[in-house]
Design a protein that fits this description.
Elements lengths: L28 H15 L3 E2 L6 E6 L2 E8 L2 E6 L2 H14 L10 E2 L2 E5 L3 E5 L1 H10 L28 H14 L7 H8 L7 H16 L4 E5 L6 E8 L10 E8 L2 E9 L7 H25 L9 E4 L2 H6 L18 H7 L4 E4 L16 H10 L2 E2 L12
Parallel strand pairs: 9-12, 12-13
Antiparallel strand pairs: 1-2, 2-3, 3-4, 5-6, 6-7, 7-8, 8-14, 9-10, 10-11
Length: 392
């Protein structure tokens, strides 16, 4: 820690202070706090997850407690209310806590409970974004981007790059509960350093879509099964300037969307088969990670994970162990999907393009198709809960 301004020792101006206690606001404080908390939890027989270091799991005599940490915010979930109360009391003796009761609001995410499950949204957060951009009175649109909208480099530089960066950064966090915005926000994020006026106009369109779907969010219901299913898709050479492909995936657990992504591939693909094959490999990595996480949560489904793809060439390439000439240049790390399939750790199936949910993460779609996939992603308005009154 450097010597504070105006308190520098004239005899030893280049000496530093020795840190004896982590002070709030210092770079070392979060690490010191997490070390202190994790040491205490481990002493209570919690196990730190290898898949997610912020997750701690307690499992003893069929009693489960999940504890999720974000800096000094903690979520505690379990199947034994008495044990949870005992644990929180023990935690309160070690640290000064403020119990906020049942989970309803966490880091800008609103949680609405119902008999069927729960609903996640960021309505207040979205309202703040619109207020910051002065778009509370804007006219709503049906899709984030039209099928003809495209982010390109040429154009007049935007006069306020900080505003552009601030809005796009806020929208990135908003996609936590709004996967329908993933592709549009991903496109806008590629021009944070040199935004143009046309880029800002497209961001304003995204905000107009947010205005019309302000209360939308993710619906999670009690699953009838716990099958892990992943959809993988890539749009070959989508970027006109770099000719790199855009790929996306969506992973469902028991019919509930739990993971998704929309990204541009870092390398150029020579064929649609190659771009789809690379997308399959990335989706398989996510499925393997989720499987490991579910195993640590003691909730791993008995059935094998399923990977769905609509490209028959990539489907064949992932199953055929023979090296083809057109696949020689593909990175070795992409071929591990063959081992997963041959070892029985992953099963792969063909899906029709019209049912390929991940398509919405690779391009701008017409309104009917966009709304169809949005429903499949389970992005919906909040559930209506009516309370009847007493009649006199």
């Amino acid at each position: 820690m450097e010597q504070p301004p105006c308190f520098i020792d004239s005899d030893f101006p280049h000496h530093v202070c020795r840190l004896k206690r982590a002070l709030y606001g210092l770079k070392q404080a979060p690490r010191a706090w997490f070390q202190r908390l994790s040491t205490f939890l481990i002493s209570l027989d919690f196990v730190c997850s290898k898949s997610d270091p912020s997750l701690f799991v307690y499992n003893k005599d069929n009693n489960l407690i999940y504890l999720l940490v974000y800096v000094d915010h903690v979520i505690v979930i379990g199947n034994n209310e008495t044990l949870i109360n005992t644990f929180t009391s023990c935690l309160n003796t070690e640290f000064k806590l403020k119990d906020l009761g049942p989970l309803s609001y966490f880091l800008g995410i609103e949680v609405l409970h119902s008999s069927a499950g729960f609903f996640l949204s960021q309505t207040k957060y979205a309202y703040d974004i619109l207020a910051r951009a002065d778009h509370l009175d804007s006219k709503p649109v049906a899709t984030p981007l039209s099928s003809t909208d495209y982010f390109s480099t040429p154009g007049t530089p935007f006069h306020d790059p900080t505003l552009y960066q601030s809005l796009v950064g806020a929208l990135q966090y908003f996609t936590i509960t709004r996967p329908d915005l993933s592709y549009a926000v991903n496109q806008a994020s590629q021009f944070l350093h040199n935004p143009t006026t046309s880029h800002f106009q497209l961001v304003k369109r995204i905000l107009r879509y947010v205005k019309g779907t302000l209360s939308y969010g993710l619906t999670f219901s009690s699953p009838t099964n716990t099958t892990l299913v992943g959809y993988s898709y890539a749009d070959w050479a989508r970027c006109i300037e770099t000719r790199r492909s855009t790929y996306g995936y969506s992973v469902y657990l028991g019919g509930n969307l739990v993971s998704w992504s929309a990204k541009k591939q870092p390398t150029m693909s020579r064929s649609s088969c190659e771009s789809e094959y690379r997308a399959l490999a990335n989706t398989a990595v996510e499925i393997v990670w989720l499987s490991n996480l579910l195993k640590e949560l003691h909730a791993l489904p008995a059935t094998k994970p399923t990977l769905l793809c609509d490209n028959k060439s990539a489907f064949f390439l992932s199953q055929n162990p023979v090296a083809h000439k057109r696949a020689k240049h593909i990175d070795i790390d992409c071929h591990f999907i063959r081992e997963l399939i041959s070892d029985g750790g992953l099963q792969k199936k063909y899906v029709q393009t019209k049912l390929q949910v991940a398509d919405t993460f690779t391009k701008s779609l017409p309104r009917p198709l966009f709304e169809h996939f949005r429903n499949l992603l389970r992005v919906e308005p909040p559930p209506i809960r009516l309370k009847g009154g007493n009649r006199g």
